Amino acid sequence: MGVGDGSIVRRAIVDKNARIGTKCQIINKGGVKEASREDQGFVIRDGIVVIIKDSNIPSGTII
């Protein structure tokens, strides 16, 4: 697992072997309750962002 410099992770679960690029915001900015974006490496359940196992979140991503 790795979190890049300048990234913010709040109210999130990061599964094993997941990588988050630099300057990402994993904060559920839109206040979404449920979403499935498995093709992008994450899901949202009950407002909690879950970064899926072995995912690679590109630098600058805002969730």
TrEMBL record:
GO MF annotation list: glucose-1-phosphate adenylyltransferase activity; nucleotide binding
Catalyses which reaction(s): alpha-D-glucose 1-phosphate + ATP + H(+) = ADP-alpha-D-glucose + diphosphate
Keyword annotations from UniProtKB, A to Z: Allosteric enzyme, Nucleotide-binding, Nucleotidyltransferase, Transferase
Enzyme class (EC, first level): transferase
UniProt keyword annotation of Nucleotide-binding present: yes
GO biological process, one term: glycogen biosynthetic process
UniProt EC number: 2.7.7.27
Source organism superkingdom: Eukaryota
InterPro entries: ADP-Glc_PPase (IPR011831), Trimer_LpxA-like_sf (IPR011004)
Pfam families: LbH_GLGC
Family statement drawn from the similarity comment of this UniProt entry: Belongs to the bacterial/plant glucose-1-phosphate adenylyltransferase family.
PANTHER family: GLUCOSE-1-PHOSPHATE ADENYLYLTRANSFERASE LARGE SUBUNIT 1, CHLOROPLASTIC-RELATED (PTHR43523:SF12), GLUCOSE-1-PHOSPHATE ADENYLYLTRANSFERASE-RELATED (PTHR43523)
Name the record gives this protein: glucose-1-phosphate adenylyltransferase
Organism, scientific name: Tetrabaena socialis
Taxonomic lineage of the native organism: Eukaryota, Viridiplantae, Chlorophyta, core chlorophytes, Chlorophyceae
